[in-house]
Write a structure and sequence with these properties.
Helix content: 25-40%
Number of domains: 1
CATH architecture: Sandwich
Shape: globular
Mean pLDDT: 94
Structural class: alpha+beta
Number of strands: 11
Radius of gyration: 16 Å
Order of helices and strands: HHEHHHEEEEEEEEEE
Oligomer: single chain
Distance between the termini: 20 Å
Number of helices: 5
Strand order of the largest sheet: 2-4-11-6-9
CATH class: Mainly Beta
Largest sheet: 5 strands, antiparallel
Low-confidence stretches: 1-5
């Protein structure tokens, strides 16, 4: 990602992560798709400006012990570069479980965590977009939920996604998942941990 203005004021590790993330997402987003349009909005905003760099208090809940396993899984080269760049950022993040999870598996609170890289409460604090990650232990379902912004997922491991317009789907090593604004959606891991990057414009 060439950001002559924003990169000059952006944490170099975040800038590198953004570069490889945009390459991977845009390479696999179908032309004229909702996923491509939504992701482009996120990257265009990052290109236009950088948020405030923040020293987040790192948090490393027990589920993060499966992160090395997730990062070590085989993946295509573009996504491997995303995983490597993310791995360098991961220890700096404020990992935490979802605040509410009605109907979730009893293992859920200690078996998942989310972290924001760019957005409210992230290493780069801003209000106009979110880029973050979700990590789940094997054999776990993230319960149905919804939120106003649309959402794009780039999976870095095997896993399945569901929304009210789509059956459970594994996007595969080159697929993306798109959730329209306000739709009910969920995800689940299988035999390996699930690690995915999410992008929300707004």
């Amino acid at each position: 990602m060439t950001m002559p203005g924003a990169h000059g004021h952006r944490d170099p590790a975040i800038a590198g992560f953004l570069d490889v993330l945009e390459t991977a997402v845009m390479a696999d987003a179908p032309p004229a798709s909702d996923a491509r349009r939504a992701a482009a909005r996120v990257f265009d905003r990052c290109r236009h400006s950088a948020g405030k760099s923040v020293a987040v208090d790192p948090a490393w809940p027990p589920v993060c012990d499966v992160l090395p396993m997730a990062l070590a899984l085989d993946r295509p080269p573009a996504r491997r570069r995303v995983a490597e760049a993310f791995g360098a950022l991961a220890p700096r993040l404020g990992w935490k479980p979802r605040a509410s999870a009605a109907g979730a598996d009893g293992r859920f609170p200690e078996s998942h965590a989310n972290a924001t890289v760019i957005g409210p409460g992230g290493l780069e604090d801003r209000q106009d977009l979110h880029i973050g990650v979700s990590l789940m232990a094997p054999d776990l379902t993230y319960p149905d939920h919804d939120h106003p912004p649309e959402e794009v997922y780039l999976a870095l491991t095997p896993g399945e996604w569901w929304n009210a317009r789509m059956d459970w789907t594994d996007p595969g090593p080159h697929g993306l998942i798109y959730n329209p604004p306000g739709i009910r959606h969920a995800m689940r891991s299988g035999a390996t941990p699930l690690l995915a990057v999410w992008l929300l414009p707004g």
